[in-house]
Every structure is written in structure tokens, then in C-alpha cells.
Amino acid sequence: xxxxxxxxxxxxxxxxxxxxxxxxxxxxxxxxxxxxxxxxxxxxxxxxxxxxxxxxxxxxxxxxxxxxxxxxxxxxxxxxxxxxxxxxxxxxxxxxxxxxxxxxxxxxxxxxxxxxxxxxxxxxxxxxxxxxxxxxxxxxxxxxxxxxxxxxxxxxxxxxxxxxxxxxxxxxxxxxxxxxxxxxxxxxxxxxxxxxxxxxxxxxxxxxxxxxxxxxxxxxxxxxxxxxxxxxxxxxxxxxxxxxxxxxxxxxxxxxxxxxxxxxxxxxxxxxxxxxxxxxxxxxxxxxxxxxxxxxxxxxxxxxxxxxxxxxxxxxxxxxxxxxxxxxxxxxxxxxxxxxxxxxxxxxxxxxxxxxxxxxxxxxxxxxxxxxxxxx
Length: 376
Known about the structure:
The chain is built from ten helices and 20 strands. By secondary structure, the protein is of the alpha+beta class. Helix 1 packs parallel to helix 4 (108-121). The radius of gyration is 21 Å and the shape is globular.
């Protein structure tokens, strides 16, 4: 018998949906509440490393993800010169195991839809446009009040509600993400035939100019710059700003830039980071994913670490027969050091870039890859 009978998951992103799937499959009654009105997700595309794909296979969605995404096994490093010269081609470590690709890119809303469809199929009850407004822990249960006035009582509440987590504040954790000093322009557009993997350009007016194929006909492209106040730009001004910044990069960027014509495909986000250093639970409420840790996307491990959180937590809850201090100690011990290492490595890369210092980027990437290749 699982350690919990019924669970509320707050947040329907990768971490929340994954936890809902695994617990519902294990016989737990799961409610998932998400503030959004549907499965749409902010952002253009997402890069999933092999360790993320390993969890997606555990969730029973790998075949659908593979069909909708674009898999590849190498990484290109290019120069910001008129030819976009290839400097190095690196063979990525297959961190999910030899039978999974090293990396897969896909449209972020497509991944959200696949995960939430799977959660509903295995029995999780999904409530959109819904959020909790109060948590009241009473012994072995948590009483929850929702914004629409409804209530529920649960054996456990999982806060998977992102970097601005309401749940984190509700359980008294005074921790907010801190700015890193960089911001990222992102877009989603048609894939040129020349783009068959991620290529990264370091240098020029942006710290990083990169792209990732996300499907047979689509890609996700991005430019990382010093953080700025971009909130006042109109959509047309945002598009023009990204096109101007992209003008310094060539090779496949020339085709990508020509296809940047729709302001609705462009968004800008400032990099922030935090790690909850200590137990991620307070009684019967636990945080996972970006609610517990976040990092710049310089190593493309954000979604992977969130999925791993959900996998480890669900595995412990389904393995044990009671929620104990030992369970929480094991969860913290398995997840905190790994997530902290990934966050610190992502921040190290941003520090090198901000200081215009030639750090050992391939070496840092390899060290993280070897770490996450070991199952969480």
C-alpha cells in the first residue's frame, strides 16, 4: 500500500504532470490544479537531454515525444564570423542510456499536452483555472481551500508551481530567485534543412546565439544578452530587436532570421536562479521542480531535473507504506546535491560569459553529463 492515498499536485508543468502520472498509475487518487486555462505553456521550444528522456519513458510517453520532437546526438560550436564557421563538433553523452538519443528538441506546448493527456488517461483529475488559496496542515493531512470556494483534504500536497511558487510562500519558505544578469530572446519558427542539431555561437553582440530543431518542420532559436528592461517594447519592436541582434550571426542564422516575421513568436525572459538548501518539505507539503530550484538554461537541464524530482518522489511514496522522516531524508539526500550541482554548473557558465573569460565549457558540460547519466 502506498504511503499516501490521495494527493494534490499544484502546477501542471513537467514536474507536476510527471508526479501526477506516476502516483495515479500506482493507485493514488490525484487531483492536479493549474492556474492556466489550458495546456498552453510559455516559451517556444524545449531542449531535453537524455536523462529527461529516461523519465519520459518511465511515464509512458516516450514514443509520442519521439514522434513529435527531433532527436540528435551531436553539438556544434560555431564562430560568430561571416560564414558561421564550425569550430568543433562534439558527440554528446547519451545520459539516458544507449537506447535513447542524447538530446531531443520539441515544441514546449506539445510536451505539456502529451504529459497532461497521459495524466488524465491514467486517472488524475485535472482542474484548470484553479489555484489553492490556503493550506492548513493538521497531523497527517492537509486541508486545502481553492479560489472558487471549494475545499479538499489530502495526505500530501506537491508544490510544482514554478519559479514564483505560491506553495513555497504558503509554507513559510522565504526564498526568491535572484537575477543572474542575463536575458534571453526566444523564437519558434520553420526549420531550415541545414539545422539538424543544436549549434551554439559564443561571442559577438550576444553571449550565446543558438538553435535547436524541435520537429520535422520547426525549430527553437535563442539569443542571450545582458539583461535589460524589455517590458516596454511593443511586439513589433521586440521582433525588430531580436532580428537586429541575430544579424551578427550567419550560417543557418541567415535563414532563421529571414523567417522571423511574426511578432507573436518572440518572447524575452530574464535569467534567475535559486536552490532551496535543506529539506524541500514542510510537514505534508513538498516542493519539486522550479519551486525548489531553478537555473539559467545554459546547460538545458531545467526540465530534466524537474522530471527527476517527480520520479524520485513518486518512487519513494509508492515504495514506502508511510510518510516518515526517513522518507524525506532520503528524498532530500537523493535530489538536493544533484540539483545543486547542476545549478552551480549553469551559473559557472554564466559567470564565465559575463566576465568574457574563456572557461572550459566542454569540460563543464561533460562533467554534468557524466553526473546525470547515473539514474537519479
